[in-house]
Amino acid sequence: MATDNQSADQVGAAQGKTKVVLYWLEKSRAQRILWLLEELKVDYELKTYKRNNMLAPPEFKKVHPLGKAPLLSVQAEGASEPLILAESGLIIEYLIEHFGPSLAPKRYQEGKEGQVQGETEEWLRYRYFIHYAEGTLMPFLVTALVLRTIREKSPFFIKPIANAITGNVETMFLTPNLENNFNFLESKIKSAPDGGGYLCGSKLTGADIMLSFPLGASKGRAGLTKEKYPALFEYVNRLEAMESNKKAVQKIIEIEGSYDPSL
């Protein structure tokens, strides 16, 4: 379904006249953008890159000054220059608005259009989790990656000190925060509107796609287990089993030879 400001015909016209290029980097948030493009059935060009000492290659800075992934190039028919989009949240919201508004819940309750506190629970969840994924959850996962790298890369003679320091940070700061977030998400999955199944209700939204990367990575090393968080774990498995998601993974395997969802 289209939004209040956009008809289905307009959505179809936008798809047919726009050139979309995804700049994909291994072990990055770009995978969820690839999944969204597959879910939306948008025609796109895919350019894949390998990391260089854990960083994006210099070619990325030719596309965007910060040189971070994901990057999306969008060029409408007749436009002289493409629009370069960075940041997963912006990319997801932009793509959904123009190519797949059905992946965003209805914003207002009936009779409360434009009113303060007139929004639906589904829409408020949607906007919240779009921002939550990067603003709250991902920083803890990046911290976990940094601590793990310190342990693995420290010279032999200082490893005991590095292990002691990183272990204390994990015990006192990282693990409690991850557990708090997983418990929070477990409760949100169980209390989702309209019978649940997804974070915002019974249907997939951009918020689910946004959270797919940090939650998928958390199954590996961050303590997201079936035993401790059964509803959340099953939810992540359900996202990973979706045909459009599997198609996105298979596309990377065909190009790169393998796919690693971890950080």
| Low-pLDDT regions | none
Strand order of the largest sheet: 2-1-3-4
Helix content: 40-55%
Shape: globular
| SS strand fraction | 5-15%
Instruction: Give me the count of strands.
Output: 4
Largest β sheet strand count, sense and barrel closure: 4 strands, mixed
Pattern of helices and strands: HEHEHEEHHHHHH
Radius of gyration, Cα only, in angstroms? 20 Å
Classify the secondary structure makeup into a structural class: alpha+beta
The span between the termini is 35 Å
Average pLDDT, rounded to a whole number, is 92
Question: What do you see in this structure?
Answer:
By secondary structure, the chain is α+β, with helices and mostly antiparallel strands. The chain is built from 9 helices and 4 strands. Strands 2-1-3-4 form a 4-stranded mixed beta sheet. Helix 2 (30-40) packs across helix 7 (206-221), helix 2 packs across helix 9 (243-256) and helix 5 (121-153) packs parallel to helix 7 (206-221). The longest helix is centred in the middle third of the chain and has 33 residues, at 121-153. The protein is globular.
Give a quick summary of the entry.
By secondary structure, this protein is α+β, with helices and mostly antiparallel strands. It has helices spanning 8-16, 30-40, 59-63, 88-99, 121-153, 159-190, 206-221, 230-240, 243-256; strands at 18-25, 45-49, 71-76, 83-86. Strands 2-1-3-4 form a 4-stranded mixed beta sheet.
What brief labels describe this structure?
alpha+beta; four-stranded mixed sheet; 4 strands; 9% strand
